[in-house]
Amino acid sequence: MKITSSVRGAAAVTVALALALTACSKDSTGGGGAAPASGGNANGAIGVDLPRADSDFWNAYARYIPAKAKELGVNLAGTTNSQNEIQNVISNMDSLVTQGAKSLLIAPQDTGAIGPKLDEMASKGIPVVSVDTRPDTGKVYMVVRADNRAYGQKACEFLGQQLGGKGKVVEFQGALSSINGRDRSEAFKECMTQKFPGIKVFEEPTEWDGGKAQAALETRLSTDPDIKGIYMQAGGVFLDPTLQLLKQRGRLVPPNDPKHIVIVSNDGIPQEFDAIRKGEIDATVSQPADAYAQYGLYWCKQAMAGVTPKAGPSDHGSKIIQLPNGFEDQLPAPLVTKDNVDDKALWGNAGA
Length: 352
What we know:
Number of domains: 2
CATH class of the largest domain: Alpha Beta
Distance between the termini: 18 Å
Number of helices: 10
CATH architecture of the largest domain: 3-Layer(aba) Sandwich
Helix content: 25-40%
Shape: elongated
Largest sheet: 8 strands, mixed
Strand content: 15-25%
CATH superfamily of the largest domain: Response regulator
Number of strands: 14
Order of helices and strands: HEHEHEHEEHEHEHEHEHEHEEEE
Radius of gyration: 20 Å
Structural class: alpha/beta
């Protein structure tokens, strides 16, 4: 599920970061999160574990990491890729610390199983920042993510309005072992139930797997050929297989064609923007890959400098909230349609 949901120019980013480093409060709010690293060494090396390599969104995030590290003047101890396996995340964290990492930037897709490892790292004075996902348990210095419930809410409202409150919709649910999958699914369901009771939603579990989504859609189109809408919780993995199947079925048609299926996605990758321009999908919620990398590394640096975050509005257009096990920097994520798809401020239009 961003600075102002955009990619800023290099000079603006540098100025904003310099201001942020001096403006961030060192006052404790009494949170139960991991304590900042002792010694105040903001120049320590940061270890980065990437969550997967089979998603266009996460590949974009991976490309932003070295560029943002250079802008921030931080050293990278190393980069690993856990390939969507929690045991790989755990072993990679150990490996990065062995390579000299004094802080870790991770994105665990299974938010339930990472807790004990986070507590272990906290006991060793290694602060951890989690990007995109909020660990259910375990001490974490900062979570950098957008409001994922807003993703489901925005997708619901867009589909509901486009369909006039009637019809059948397929929802590709992300893994429910992930806080993101749960947040998006729960918010989408609540919104549909309350605001659009005339829409029937078919919830299709996918575990963030494009092949599973494609198979589920193929089955659903066979049993319910009058499907009118699709909600894809991750365009980075669902876009291509969905468009391929709709093309095979003769349903990949312009919005003015009665057979058009209204599609709203989540991610904001360039491929989604191209699909919006072509009329193949109708909207997406732009998840800030650039700001995930930027502020993930920024908070790692703050942690190593001994800074304790303070809840409230940030100086980069987000809101910092206190969690039972740390803090969260909630970055904004805009809905993108044909009306604003060419906005140069969107990271998906700037590349990585």
